[in-house]
Design goal:
The chain is of the alpha/beta class. The chain has 3 domains: about 5-100 and about 570-624, Rossmann fold, CATH 3.40.50.300; about 150-200 and about 470-485; about 205-455, Helix Hairpins. The protein has 13 helices and 13 strands. The protein has helices at about 40-50, 105-110, 115-120, 125-135, 140-165, 170-200, 205-285, 295-315, 325-430, 435-515, 550-565, 585-595, 610-615, and strands spanning about 5-10, 20-25, 30-35, 65-75, 75-85, 90-95, 110, 520-525, 530-535, 540, 570-575, 600-605, 620. The strands form 3 sheets. Strands 2-1-4-5-6 form a 5-stranded antiparallel sheet, covered by helices on one side. A 5-stranded parallel sheet has the order 7-11-12-3-13, sandwiched between helices. Helix 5 runs antiparallel to helix 10 (about 435-515), helix 7 (about 205-285) packs antiparallel against helix 9 and helix 10 packs across helix 11. It is elongated.
Length: about 625
């Protein structure tokens, strides 16, 4: 909410304005009438700078000066200070404005030659108009989301390709092969059991029990080996994850180191100036010492001035003291001048002290930021050291240990199988079994052992294929979901831009009818972002067919309507160089329509605009 009926704008060293300039902006209209190169456009740039717009600061500061300032005074003071440094022009300090200002106000409330909408209409291209709608809507939010989803989608697609390469044979084929091997093993075990029953029937029970016990032990040992292989695979996956984590930490550490180096370089530059700043601050504080510095001198001058006034009052009534009065008056005048000089010096020093304190505080924050970065890098390096020196060696040691246990267990199994074959041989000898039966039992035992090994290998392959296939299916689902979500975001992005276009068309229609133009009856933006103008009683006319004056007038209409539609809270509407070839009658209608619909209307021109449009301006500001 505005607190007064005028704003005071103070500009120092901005654009073509060198030195200080103060301007009152009054309601409802303020005209700035001045010749070329007098600073009209610089005032507009100052207002844009105060609105935190995306202007290039290199073209804002006066080329002959190192510091610039813009200040706007309502009941409060709002300001921006810029300065030239080794790295370019930068903002030293700024205050937050009363109004909620963003780029929408910058794109819709400053009708200047280099405004994006003005350039689009002068050199018309539909794709540039669509980009302008993107700036005045919230479409850029969805553009950020679309970029993020595209990145995730690429990662997931890469993961799908990696998993697909793992699945060499279809899971169903592996299952069929495993079932076939298990069936064959069951047949071999059945045939072997029959042979063993025949041997048992011969009466050698102890040998048979020993053989069965040994077979059970061998089976348990193979099961234990299978479990150890699974544990070994799990440890290998854990090792791979740790290596990935180490690589990620290394990337983050490098990024932090680069940022730290930039901060250190910046800190070196600031620290080089620190001693000079501190020395200067000490000098300023010494000059502001109440006991010995300028405040003490001011106090003495005020006391002396008071004494002069007292003396003057006491001798006014004495006739013999009349010749002294001019002398005392001269002393009073000189003392006043000296006092004013000292007061001015004190204010200048106080302002300089404030600026020096700001610089020192910024240096302190920069040091804290450097320390924080160093701690962050130390944390990354600590975790990397733990992974490299503790976690990875531990995992590798466990993998090696498990591998050794597997080798040892397989050696034990081989010994047990040799013992089993010896027992079987003894049984056959003792039973007097024929050579054919001995050979068959031996063949069956070997075949059983081979089948068990083959089944374990197939089970391992099937388990890994199932895991890879399950991960592949989850990754495919994630890709499909991300593609659907990306399509939704893209549709939403287009919907928002179209919504901004429809909102502008509605505002154009409502405002255009109220302006009651002669000749022109409608302006609208088509779904293809083509700007169409309709004359009364004629078919639609493309923008390229209009005269330069008509296009300039349409630019002004669209700019103000866009300001009403997208930035209604912003209290200013600025028209720069109003003497450009606007159609006079239409321009008068537009100005009469705009006045009162925005708190402050600021118009710059080369000639007094009131002579042109035929009404008396409430407030007129002139520049020398």
């Amino acid at each position: 909410m505005l607190k007064r009926d005028e704003l005071i704008l103070k500009v120092e060293n901005i654009g073509g304005i060198r030195g200080k300039l103060e301007l009152k902006i009054k309601q409802p209209i303020t005209f700035i009438n001045a010749p070329n190169a007098a600073g009209k456009s610089s005032i507009v740039r100052a207002l844009q700078l105060l609105c935190k717009n995306p202007l290039n600061l290199d073209y804002i500061l006066n080329e002959y000066e190192n510091n610039g300032r813009v200040e706007l005074i309502d009941e409060e003071r709002f300001f921006v200070e810029i300065a030239r440094s080794k790295v370019g022009i930068e903002v030293l300090s700024e205050s937050k404005l009363l109004w909620d200002i963003d780029e929408k106000a910058f794109h819709t409330s400053f009708c200047v030659r280099d405004a994006e909408l003005i350039k689009i209409i002068e050199d018309y291209k539909p794709e540039r108009l669509k980009y302008w709608f993107r700036n005045v809507s919230d479409a850029y939010y969805y553009e950020s989301l679309i970029s993020i989803i595209n990145t995730l989608l690429e990662e997931k697609r890469g993961e799908c390709e990696r998993l697909k390469s793992i699945i060499e044979v279809d899971v169903k084929d592996r299952e069929i092969a495993l079932i076939k091997a298990q069936k064959e093993l069951a047949e071999v075990e059945s045939e072997l059991a029959d042979a063993n029953r025949k041997l048992k029937d011969l009466g050698y029970g102890d040998l048979i029990k020993g053989k069965e016990q040994m077979e059970k032990e061998i089976s348990d040992m193979w099961r234990k080996i299978s479990n150890m292989e699974e544990e070994k695979d799990e440890k290998r996956r854990e090792e791979i994850n740790l290596q990935r984590l180490y690589a990620d930490l290394e990337v983050h550490r490098e990024s932090e180191l680069n940022e730290l180096q930039l901060l250190i370089n910046e800190l070196k530059v600031e620290e080089e100036a620190e001693k000079i700043i501190i020395a200067r601050r000490n000098d300023v504080m010494k000059s502001l010492d109440p006991e010995k510095g300028i405040p003490f001198m001011i106090k003495n001058l005020e006391s002396r001035l008071s004494n002069y006034y007292s003396t003057l009052e006491s001798i006014k009534s004495l006739a013999e003291a009349q010749p002294c009065i001019p002398v005392i008056d001269a002393c009073i005048k000189a003392t006043k001048e000296e006092l004013n000089i000292k007061v001015s010096e004190r204010r200048s020093l106080e302002k300089e002290l404030e600026s020096l304190n700001v610089r020192l505080e910024a240096l302190k924050k920069l040091r804290a930021k450097v320390d924080f970065k160093k701690r962050s890098i130390a944390d990354y390096e600590k975790r990397m050291k733990e992974i490299k020196e503790r976690d990875l060696p531990r995992i590798r040691s466990e993998i090696e240990r498990i591998g050794e246990e597997i080798v040892k267990s397989k050696a034990d199994i081989e010994g047990r199988e040799n013992e089993l074959r010896m027992i079987i041989g003894n049984i056959l000898k003792l039973e007097g079994v024929s050579e054919g039966l001995k050979k068959r039992i031996d063949e069956l035992s070997k075949k059983k052992s081979e089948l068990e090994k083959d089944i374990r290998a197939k089970e391992t392959e099937l388990r890994r294929a199932l895991e890879a296939r399950s991960e592949y299916e989850r990754a495919i689902k994630a890709v499909k979901w991300l593609e659907g979500f990306l399509s939704h975001l893209q549709r939403r992005h287009e919907y928002i831009i179209d919504g901004a276009r429809n909102e502008l068309n509605k505002a154009l229609k409502d405002n255009f009818e109220l302006m009651r133009f002669i000749g022109l009856s409608e302006i609208m933006v088509t779904p293809d972002y083509e700007l169409i103008v309709r004359r009364k009683g004629r078919p639609p006319t493309k923008l390229q067919m209009l005269s330069s004056s008509e296009r300039l007038t349409i630019s002004l209409i669209m700019m103000f309507v866009a300001k009403q539609a997208y930035a209604p809270e912003f209290p200013l509407f600025v028209i720069d160089e109003a003497k450009e070839p606007y159609d006079e009658t239409r321009f008068e209608k537009i100005i009469n329509y705009i006045r009162g619909k925005v708190p402050y209307l600021l118009i710059t021109s080369l000639v007094p605009l009131k002579d042109k449009v035929g009404y008396e301006a409430i407030t007129t500001s002139y520049m020398e």
